[in-house]
# Entry
Amino acid sequence: MPIPLVYNVRSVRARWTSAIVAVLGIAGTVGVFIAMLSLAKGFKATLISSGSDDNAIIMRAGSTSELTGGVALDSVKIIQDAPGIARGPEGPLVTPEIVIIAPIPLISTGTDANVQIRGVTKNVLHIRRNIRIVEGQMFTPGLAEIIVGKNATKSYSGLTLGNTIRLGTVRWKIVGVFDAGDTSFDSEVWADAKLLGPAFGRGENFFQSVTVHLQNPGTLQQLRDALTADPRLNVDVAREVDYYTKQSGRLTSLITILGGLVAAIMAIGAVFGALNTMYSAVSERGREIATMRAIGFGGPSVVFSFVIEALLIALVGGLLGCLAVLKLNGVTTGAMNLQTFSHVAFAFKITPLLLAQGIIFALVMGVIGGLLPAIRAAAQPVASALRSL
Amino acid sequence: MKYARLIFANLFRKKVRLILTIGSFSVALFLFTFLGVVKSAFSRGTEIAGADRLVTINRIGLINVLPLSYGDKIRAVPGVKAVTHNHWFGGVYQDERNFFPQFVIDVENHRKVMNEFKVADDQWNNFIKDRQGAIAGTTLAKRFGWKVGDRIPIKNALYGATKTWEFNLDGIYHDDKPGGDDSQFWLQWKYFDENVPEVIKSTAGWYVLKLDSADDAATVAKAIDYQFANSSNETKTETESAFAAGFAKQLGNIELLILIIGGVVFFTLLLVTGNTMAISVRERTAELAVLKAIGFSGPTVMFFVLAESLTIALFGGLLGLGLAILAIPVVGTALRGLLPTLVVSGSVLALGLAAAVLVGGASGILPGIGALRLRVVDALRRV
# Structure
């Protein structure tokens, strides 16, 4: 016959000081666990959502990122005529781009951050369709004008609408702010590729990558076959979303490994705390347990009851931990992408799945912390425990 | 310590509790040390940077190069002792995940400026003679099992068409400074210059210069940047530590994050031990009263309680630090390529031990005061 749950609730309440200690230990662990994972998740989501399924990025074969690529103008012309590429009113939807990293001070610390400056063509908005101009307008091709991402304008000093800023050898006027839907483009500055290259000492006809809009996601293979078979070209073709997934790799695994390690060590500490609490609960309650056994509750019911009590403590701790970190959701922070050495703003992303993982983590700690003391409680001989009164 | 036996007897009264409390102390101290080491790994560049060294880069940004002719002009600036130049090679060995920094070095001046890197003279001489020569740091060589004489292919897409460059490992260097960087790979500028496209030929990625005196850093930096102002390649010169700090800051608020986690751990630890001490004192109220009744003074009884919690703190702390010393090199190996080398420094250990003793004292103080104030009559009546 099971021992009523209300017994556990009351006993936790009677020993609330030591219960609180165990609760806080578990809450802290769960909080750190969720915070670290949400950081990794937020960074990864920011980069992955930068890529889209129906875009392809074409770079020199063997390049690991846009920064290391190089595509000449004659190659761009060949790519424009390749099959599988969607066409807009002004011809094929192809944007040859260059990426430059320039130091611009962070508003928060005043120190330079490596900001990614992207040279694009005007039809980029037809290719990256999740990007909208929210203030001002698109730059005019041929003029020294730039548009900035919504995180860039918030994070880096001097990037406000109407302002002018010197990048490379040119002074640029900021004519627009764009919203890229919380992707890494939101941390970028965009200009006309034909002007950006020369401003940074590059040729006018030199690009680093070409992004194209596919007729539909299925035409990627067709495009890839055509381009890799062409003897005039030496390029790799990747789906944009795959490219960005790969870009997020190093920092994501660093945060996940470090965070996992810290949470694991903290979990051991929290289990020790829970064990301590439960052991002292058992030793303080020798008589109660013996009495319950004497009036007919079996050993398994006692074990079950104590595990339930530990789970109760763990659940409260887990919920508290979740609640404490929930405020982090959406908080923007910045970090350097270890793949490109450029600065990216992103937000903590706490998903229901993460919260559920946190609660499960707490319950596992509860079971580990409760099982041994529970077995000890049930194993106490009834007669001697009652005699010690 | 005539009371030592009494204190120890009390400690071992509840063995499981003692083990668990010492365990939570050592876990917390382990984590404390680990976080401290990670934090210092991120800011290490700043700490080990030579105070008498400056870095000159293209003002436009790190990825823009400078003409090679700047070297002589910088060397002519008063206060500059030696100048060397580097390039970032940025190749891939076997797989992208095997990342390690590869620097193109100027063999004539590198050892004059970067004098903390030690290479055996015969290895260095072989390296200079061998156009395809390379030198690797000790940790890097160990990581891939390289030996002097090995041929190392590195794929590079940064300079011209993607191709594989072949290198002969001629030597192994070791960084003299504690916590120094033994993970670099060096190749010769001449070999590099022959094989790169026209626009990169006769250029330097950046210059590193050694000063006669660290006090001149600001004036020399200003003089160099002034000399190249309004030219087609303007420069930005700063101290090596400022340069490294610029990189570290962009990694995000790692320091804040570590501080928060450390705070959470510390607070939890304080609660756990405080609670344990409170429980064990409560259980022994009658005993403490008896001690007082037979003539021990209040402060002595308080001392018993405090000594108990400090002993636990000290043991747990030492255990945790020992674990950290053993485990952190293993973790560092697992994380190599992602994090700079993890080094357990004496100052982190000392700080950890001080923290442990502090928590031990703080968690014993409340129960201790309880014991001090305990009134014999009340306590004995409760029995």
